[in-house]
């Protein structure tokens, strides 16, 4: 029934390790790199006070209202320079996300 | 088929977590190695033959549904019909599916086919195999899931569109992520270039009318652990029909026919008396002992078990608005109050292995436990 006895996993054994990450560097007072969306490069944030202030500066969503409701386009941060907040993609303004995934938390079947 | 109670390995949690299995215990245990099921080789060969033949019957049934335009019985959106037919005629590839079977008194009966988003693949292919290596390394198992996944991804390399094969699942479920990453693991080992993203990260490029990943690169091949009926009903659903890349979605849209329980009465209508099938109808008809199932439902939700006209068990849930089917009751075997259902995998058109989920009642739900097996 079993054709081979050698089973190798290249990805799975690291899966849980990636879910159990060590304490974020910013908690330990290190330099924190963030980006406003997937088209922007990571940049060191300019505020040195993690915690509540970090959350305030780093995670302010922005988006637009469409006939289908609110669409999140990314995050804006005063901790980042203006060009980094925008990103590089020329077609970014024409790309929307979040149109799948509204139905449930798990497929479990 | 016999059930044996045993002592779990002392370090079983650590052993399974080292393999990347992080959802072995939720509110109740899911991975349960305090018992195992033992099969004779002849029994396994019977299950394997049933799986192969059921797959052939299913492919014929898809063609029948298309030829006879029976989509109304499946509550499939009309807009999706031409697309489903296009993916069928163009042979958009399928990688896997799981037949849920009842094995009792030497008979194998199809309960349903999880054709679109089956889970428990990782525990069936990997976790129970390594359990067997610890428990009795000289024994064998009905399990070539891992080898067949790698082989079929490799076969698909020349079939897929050029570029990456993306993998997508919901972001909130470790179980879904583990199943998806396991499939991606096998794809990587077959030589494919892959990328993971969450289902809500999929983007739509309005100007070019293509789906894009987080780097705004076009998606041309994508495995998604996300049901077609949900995709079709969400905001991006119509975009699938407008996609200029005509991307390969795996599982393909024609699986909407097979993952729907309306396929059960269709199969019985096509093959009355087939030994692997149970009588099934869109109305109770001649049945007095039957199971009423929503055509679209998950994890044993909204099931009614009726015996001699009396309701003997019922599960709650939020499914059923699309309609129901009625299948003759063929109760799961009873091992001191434990009821096992066999999940028999078809991978790349071939039977590939089996996982067993066990419940304390006759409906296998999201509290069921995964029990390993061996061939005696």
How would you describe this protein?
The complex is a heterodimer of chains A (109) and B (376). Chain A is α+β, with helices and mostly antiparallel strands. Helix content of chain A is 16%, strand content 20%. In chain A, the strands form two sheets. In chain A, strands 1-2 form a two-stranded antiparallel sheet. The longest helix of chain B is centred in the first third of the chain and has 28 residues, at 41-68. With 376 residues, chain B is α+β, with helices and mostly antiparallel strands. The N and C termini of chain B lie close together (10 Å). In chain B, strands 4-3-16-17-18 form a five-stranded antiparallel sheet. In chain B, helix 2 (41-68) packs across helix 10 and helix 5 (145-156) crosses helix 6. The chains are: A alpha+beta (109), B alpha+beta (376). Chains A and B meet through helix 1 and strand 5 of A and helix 4, helix 6, strand 7 and helix 7 of B. Strand 5 (95-97) of chain A pairs antiparallel with strand 7 of chain B, so a sheet runs across the interface.
Report how far apart the termini of chain A are: 25 Å
Distance between the ends of chain B: 10 Å
* Strands side by side in the biggest sheet of chain B: 4-3-16-17-18
The proportion of residues in beta strands of chain B is 25-35%
Low-confidence stretches of chain A: none
| H-E string of chain A | HEEHEEHE
Q: How large, in whole angstroms, is the Cα Rg of chain A? A: 19 Å
Q: Can you count the beta strands of chain A?
A: 5
What percent of residues of chain B adopt helix (DSSP H or I)?
25-40%
**Oligomer class:** heterodimer
Q: Based on helices, strands and strand pairing, what is the structural class of chain B? A: alpha+beta
Q: Can you tell me the overall shape of chain A?
A: elongated
Q: Please list the strands of the largest sheet of chain A in the order they lie side by side.
A: 1-2
Radius of gyration of chain B: 20 Å
Q: Which regions of chain B contain 5 or more consecutive residues with pLDDT less than 50?
A: none
Biggest interface: A-B, 37 and 69 residues
Helix content of chain A: 10-25%
Number of strands of chain B: 19
């Amino acid at each position: 029934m079993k054709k081979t006895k050698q089973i190798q996993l290249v990805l799975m054994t690291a899966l849980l390790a990636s879910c159990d990450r060590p304490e974020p560097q910013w908690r330990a007072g290190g330099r924190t790199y963030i980006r406003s969306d997937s088209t922007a490069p990571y940049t060191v944030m300019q505020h040195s006070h993690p915690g509540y202030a970090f959350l305030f500066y780093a995670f302010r969503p922005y988006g637009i209202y469409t006939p289908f409701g609110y669409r999140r386009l990314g995050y804006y941060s005063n901790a980042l320079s203006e060009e980094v907040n925008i990103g590089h993609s020329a077609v970014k303004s024409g790309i929307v996300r979040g149109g799948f995934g509204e139905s449930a938390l798990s497929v479990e079947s | 088929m016999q059930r044996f109670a045993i002592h779990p390995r002392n370090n079983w949690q650590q052993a399974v977590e080292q393999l990347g299995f992080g959802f072995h215990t939720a509110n109740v245990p899911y991975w349960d190695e305090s018992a195992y099921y033992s099969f004779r080789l002849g029994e396994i060969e019977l299950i394997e033959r049933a799986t192969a033949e059921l797959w052939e019957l299913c492919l014929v049934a898809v063609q029948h549904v298309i030829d006879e335009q029976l989509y109304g019985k499946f509550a499939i959106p009309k807009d999706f019909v031409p697309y489903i037919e296009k993916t069928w005629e163009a042979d958009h590839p399928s990688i896997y599916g799981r037949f849920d079977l009842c094995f009792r008194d030497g008979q194998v009966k199809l309960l349903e086919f999880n054709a679109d988003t089956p889970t428990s693949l990782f525990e069936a292919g990997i976790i129970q195999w390594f359990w067997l290596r610890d428990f009795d390394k000289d024994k064998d198992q009905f399990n070539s899931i891992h080898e067949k996944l790698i082989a079929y991804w490799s076969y698909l390399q020349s079939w897929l569109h050029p570029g990456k094969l993306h993998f997508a699942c919901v972001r909130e479920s470790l179980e879904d992520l583990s199943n998806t990453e396991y499939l991606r693991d096998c794809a990587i080992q077959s030589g494919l270039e892959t990328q993971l993203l969450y289902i809500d990260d999929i983007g739509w490029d309005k100007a070019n009318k293509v789906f894009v990943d987080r780097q705004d690169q076009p998606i041309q091949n994508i495995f998604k652990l996300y049901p077609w009926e949900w995709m079709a009903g969400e905001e991006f659903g119509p975009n699938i029909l407008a996609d200029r890349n005509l991307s390969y979605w795996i599982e393909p849209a024609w699986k909407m026919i097979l993952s729907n329980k309306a396929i059960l009465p269709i199969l019985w209508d096509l093959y009355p008396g087939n030994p692997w099938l149970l009588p099934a109808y869109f109305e109770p008809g001649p049945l007095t002992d039957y199971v009423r199932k929503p055509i679209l439902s998950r994890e044993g939700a909204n099931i009614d078990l009726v015996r001699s006209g009396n309701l003997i068990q019922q599960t709650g849930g939020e499914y059923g608005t699309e309609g129901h089917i009625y299948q003759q009751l063929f109760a799961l075997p009873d091992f001191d109050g434990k009821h096992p259902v066999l999940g028999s995998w078809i991978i790349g058109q071939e039977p590939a292995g089996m996982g067993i989920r066990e419940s304390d009642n006759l409906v296998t739900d999201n509290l069921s436990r995964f029990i390993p097996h061996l061939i005696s």
